[in-house]
């Protein structure tokens, strides 16, 4: 009987080993096929002329109507697209162009459609026209307050990505008509993708990127300026001995008063004869602009205070004097044969004036407001106070006005943002799933996040999702749509495979010694411990450095912890109105009220980081709100 049981166990064990070997062989074949595609050894690979393909697509596009407009529920799944926020003529819109997607057969398709999201009525529209740029991905776009969007460069490839084409063309989009026009110039930046653009006054600034020639990849560090008054590109020439940033792509480039701030990025450096290795950059530079491009100079910024851990696949977006950064990935070498990665979903802000980084954390999930009537009453009280101040200074409008901050004054739209939230979406108290290469844009006080990539082993997942985060409140993530089904299905299958592998390993002979087990554990610790130590030291340093944030205007009113912009203006509007009167001699009534709100908003954002630290300390102590006592009436409010 025992012999039969042993034979039965051996047979079942043999069957499991055969199944395991079959799975391993299947994975190996898939890996070799993927590798052969990268090296161009696949007999079925497409040998196509990309120039002819692009030309054929352009001819096909000429048969379209001038502009085809279609209302859609959402953009289709894609990656490496470009998105910018536009607040023009009272409209808040997001513009998304191009991108690529990989189908089930592993073939890549490129887009050249334009999607416009109207934040006021929560609708997407798709635009196609005969003048649209060619399909592409990894291009750069920037919105200029004059009402135009400039697009440059990008890449296109064969369906199996063995041959690449990089664009060097420049396109301009009129945000009023949604029509594209190509900018024909003799001198323009060379072909590239992965570059970045921002603007300063009448100049649009372009920096960096890379060009893949198939046999080698060249990273760039040149700076180009596009003058929106002359529609001409000009390269900035730096002195021979002038220190400039390393060549890079996928970095951050945001505007500031002096010109632009550059941070991070990725490049490849030599690692021996004919070899290259990736390098993650964490340096920060200021591009100091001048009206004469000959006077433009780079200046390196010293690190101080808390610093983000190294990462790539994330680019800052400008928001009221600071940069907002989400997500990213860092590849670290676990062993000599394999490479592992750490993915992030952290939200960081960079104050370009103080050169300091801050971690941003979400507050408790947003709740339905119950004090709307009280707020309206306080708004009416503020309006009476403002009118009284204007009357004493003889600065009322010529015609009587019954406007209040709740009606048609210039600050109304901003104050009403607290009340007019779209109602049927889910709000999450957790930041979105970790990812890199997410497409982000800032519109008003909202950070929008579209798509992104996540990897597990050799599998890559194109996350199909769209979120927004209120940067003023940080009270949750608004989920417009989210589809992580591919990732969840893979996780379930992966867990099943791991369970089977563990079961098979238990049946095999125990040949490992305790020393081997200790070596395995130590290897794991060698990988993890540097990052643990680094993070812990960063946290200590952050606490020391964040304790003091200089106040450039200490005589102005200071926001209180947990006080919204609306409440701050209601409390301090009279003081800012007096300041506006002293600064604007020729203004009257409504103009002065508008100016007072702008001054109040500027002050609120100026002290936002310092107040956030106070709020974090209070929340750690269990305080989530502050109740103010009205001494005059003996009541709390």
TrEMBL record:
Residues 399-412 have a biased composition (Low complexity). Residues 488-519, 538-549 have a biased composition (Acidic residues). Residues 1-43, 393-419, 488-555 are annotated as: Disordered. It comes from the Eukaryota. Residues 551-634 form the DUF4110 domain. Residues 8-32 have a biased composition (Basic and acidic residues). This is DUF4110 domain-containing protein. The lineage of its organism: Eukaryota, Fungi, Dikarya, Ascomycota, Saccharomycotina.
């Amino acid at each position: 009987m025992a012999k039969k049981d042993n034979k039965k166990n051996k047979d079942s064990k043999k069957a499991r080993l055969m199944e395991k070997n079959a799975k391993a062989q299947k994975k190996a074949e898939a890996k070799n096929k993927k590798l052969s595609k990268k090296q161009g050894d696949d007999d079925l690979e497409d040998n196509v002329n990309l120039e002819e393909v692009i030309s054929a697509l352009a001819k096909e596009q000429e048969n379209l109507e001038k502009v085809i407009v279609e209302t859609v529920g959402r953009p289709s799944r894609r990656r490496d697209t470009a998105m910018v926020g536009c607040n023009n003529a009272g409209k808040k819109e997001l513009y998304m162009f191009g991108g690529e997607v990989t189908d089930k057969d592993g073939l890549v398709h490129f887009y050249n459609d334009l999607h416009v999201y109207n934040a006021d009525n929560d609708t997407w529209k798709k635009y196609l026209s005969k003048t649209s740029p060619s399909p592409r991905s990894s291009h750069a776009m920037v919105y200029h307050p004059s009402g135009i969007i400039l697009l440059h460069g990008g890449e296109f490839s064969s369906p199996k990505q063995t041959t690449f084409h990089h664009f060097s063309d420049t396109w301009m989009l009129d945000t009023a008509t949604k029509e594209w026009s190509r900018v024909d110039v003799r001198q323009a930046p060379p072909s590239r993708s992965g570059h970045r653009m921002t603007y300063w006054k009448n100049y649009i600034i372009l920096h960096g990127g890379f060009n893949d020639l198939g046999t080698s990849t060249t990273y760039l560090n040149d700076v180009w300026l596009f003058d929106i008054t002359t529609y001409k590109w000009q390269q900035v020439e730096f002195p021979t001995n002038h220190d400039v940033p390393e060549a890079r792509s996928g970095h951050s480039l945001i505007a500031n008063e002096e010109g632009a701030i550059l941070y991070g990025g990725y490049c490849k450096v030599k690692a021996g004869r004919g070899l290259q290795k990736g390098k993650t950059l964490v340096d920060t530079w200021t591009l100091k602009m001048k009206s004469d491009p000959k006077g433009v100079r780079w200046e390196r910024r010293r690190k101080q205070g808390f610093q983000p851990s190294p990462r790539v696949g994330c680019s800052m977006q400008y928001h009221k004097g600071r940069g907002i950064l989400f997500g990213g990935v860092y590849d670290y070498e676990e062993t000599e044969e394999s490479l592992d990665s750490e993915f992030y979903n952290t939200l960081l802000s960079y104050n370009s004036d103080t050169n300091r980084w801050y971690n941003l954390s979400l507050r408790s999930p947003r709740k339905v407001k119950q004090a709307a009537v009280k707020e309206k009453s306080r708004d009416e009280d503020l309006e009476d106070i403002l009118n009284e101040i204007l009357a004493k200074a003889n600065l009322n409008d010529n015609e009587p006005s019954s406007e209040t901050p709740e009606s048609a004054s210039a600050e109304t739209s901003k104050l009403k943002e607290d009340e007019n939230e779209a109602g049927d979406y889910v709000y999450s108290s957790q930041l979105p799933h970790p990812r890199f290469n997410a497409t982000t844009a800032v519109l008003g006080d909202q950070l929008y996040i579209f798509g992104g990539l996540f990897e597990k082993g050799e599998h890559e997942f194109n996350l199909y999702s769209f979120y927004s985060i209120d940067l003023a409140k940080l009270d949750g993530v608004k989920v417009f749509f989210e589809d992580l089904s591919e990732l969840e299905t893979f996780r379930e299958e992966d867990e099943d495979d791991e369970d089977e592998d563990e079961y098979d390993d238990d049946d095999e002979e125990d040949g490992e010694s305790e020393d081997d087990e200790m070596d395995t554990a130590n290897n794991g610790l060698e990988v993890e411990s540097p990052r643990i130590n680094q993070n812990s030291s960063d946290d200590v340093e952050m606490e020391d450095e964040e304790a003091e944030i200089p106040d450039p205007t200490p005589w102005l009113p200071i926001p209180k912890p947990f006080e919204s912009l609306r409440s701050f203006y209601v409390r301090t509007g009279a003081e800012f109105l007096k300041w506006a009167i002293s600064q604007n001699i020729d203004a009257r009534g409504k103009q002065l009220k508008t100016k007072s709100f702008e001054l109040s908003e500027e002050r609120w954002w100026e002290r936002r980081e310092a107040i956030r630290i106070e709020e974090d300390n209070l929340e750690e102590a269990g305080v989530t709100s502050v109740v103010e006592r009205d001494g005059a009436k003996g009541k709390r409010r």
